[in-house]
Design brief:
single chain, about 90 residues, alpha+beta, 1 helix
């Protein structure tokens, strides 16, 4: 990840980030076998997925519905992301 311009968070070693431009970032969150990629730039997300697939065996499950036993719910109209855990 470092070779691709990513930096590791000093607060959490499972978070990598890369600045793409003004107010645009791509985040890669890793925890054991789980991965979540987030960015405003969908093309950058797809580039990162291709790079990771070339190096690792992985499945693309599409938009996150659940991660680490937390359910995600997006309201794009109101720019909200809700996480819930039972």
């Amino acid at each position: 990840m470092f070779e691709s311009g990513f930096h590791r968070s000093i607060k959490d070693a499972c978070i990598y980030f890369k600045k793409l431009g003004n107010y645009c970032w791509v985040y890669l969150l890793l925890y054991v076998k789980y991965m979540l990629i987030a960015s405003k730039d969908k093309e950058e997300i797809n580039k990162l997925k291709l790079k990771l697939k070339a190096e690792f065996e992985m499945k693309d499950l599409g938009e996150a519905k659940k991660i680490l036993d937390m359910e995600t719910e997006r309201d794009r109209k109101h720019f909200e992301l809700k996480l819930t855990q039972k």
